[in-house]
Amino acid sequence: MRLMVFFDLPTLTKTELADYRNFRRFLIKNGFIMMQESVYCRLVLNNNSSKLLKNQIVKNLPRNGLVQLLQITEKQFVNIDYLVGKSKSNIISSDKRIIEI
């Protein structure tokens, strides 16, 4: 499964800009990869790990703005159509299982 985070955060003041940077750093530190600006994605193994990650995201939410989460299956993720541009090479876009030793 994939957990996708979509966010639109204000960056007009220094505090808002700091919140934006901290939230983005949190996502990267926790294994999310940027698909597009303000769209991050991470592979999760099951519903339990997804719930734990969602709880961590809730604890690190910025004060203002919009943050949305979407959980999709690998089969759905692989079926993304790229209308303009190409997929990024650092995102695994296969429905095959990954085993890391």
Q: What's the short version?
A:
This protein is of the alpha+beta class and about 100 residues long. The chain has helices spanning about 15-30, 45-60, 75-80, and strands spanning about 1-10, 35, 40-45, 65-70. A hairpin with a 2-residue loop joins strand 2 and strand 3.
Query: Quick one: overall form?
Result: globular
Strand content: 15-25%
By CATH, the topology is Alpha-Beta Plaits
Helix percentage range: 25-40%
**Physical arrangement of strands within the biggest beta sheet:** 2-3-1-4
| Extended strand count | 4
Task: Report on this structure.
The chain has a single domain, classed as Alpha-Beta Plaits, CATH 3.30.70.240. The two termini are 20 Å apart. The model has no long low-confidence stretch (mean pLDDT 88). It is globular, with a radius of gyration of 14 Å. A 4-stranded antiparallel β-sheet has the order 2-3-1-4. It has 3 helices and 4 strands. With 101 residues, the protein is of the alpha+beta class.
